[in-house]
Amino acid sequence: MASPDQDLAPVLDKDGVRLTVDDALATVTLTNPAKRNAQSPALWRALAEAGRSLPGSVRVVVLRGEGQSFSAGLDRQMFTPEGIPGEPTFIELARRDDAELDASIAEFQEAFTWWRQSDFVSVAAVQGHAIGAGFQLALACDLRVVADDVQFAMRETSLGLVPDLTGTHPLVSLVGYARALEICATGRYVQAEEAVTSGLANVAVPVGELDAAVRDLAGALLAAPRDAVVETKALLRGASGRTYDEQRAAERQAQARRLRDLAGVGE
After folding, report:
1. 89 near 83, Cβ under 8 Å?
2. Are residues 73 and 155 in contact, defined by beta-carbon separation less than 8 angstroms?
3. What is the pLDDT of residues 197-231, one digit of tens each?
4. Would you give the DSSP letter of residue 130?
């Protein structure tokens, strides 16, 4: 994939992550195509830092990966006895007490939690492999545009693990419990057509058209008034946790805020 943000001065560029900002549009790029954008704790810390570095002007965040794969999942070096230099091995993590282990996993999850904040819309542009942690990173975003060569898979169970990087909640929300269980338990590939029909992806396009499709979507999102998008996103995100009548009330309250704002009338 070409890099649409390559001419912009990066706000952050470290550990396989680059953040650029062009007014209301931010782009987070995974920049280690030689390793198919494999993920490590250092990359997760950089992703979390990217989220903290976003200016308040940003309304759309695009997540993309350089090369032929979005992200092939965990860096396999993490599974070796020596692990990644400077990082805890899996064995060392397992030996921590419950509180320490919980805190370590929670720190890893921070790379995946900020993409659904209400003040912007996040869009994952996904091509090639999006495996395990790569699948979960794509699921962390609000929307997914995929290339026709995409291959999603949740391979954690084949390693004796569970998906723990925040991917289970959005996966069940998008495809339902039964299909989510089958995808996770079998570790099979979900390709472009199924991704769209099951709700995992908003649209699939030829791989050569992925950047253009994402640019078009970002432009459409930016064309709508910011406050209306923010209120709508918050309203939709909370819908699954409300009853029908509670959602009706939330709609009324949100609309009242918008009407007063548009009319310049205070609360």
Report:
1. yes
2. yes
3. 999 999 999 999 999 999 999 999 999 999 999 99
4. E
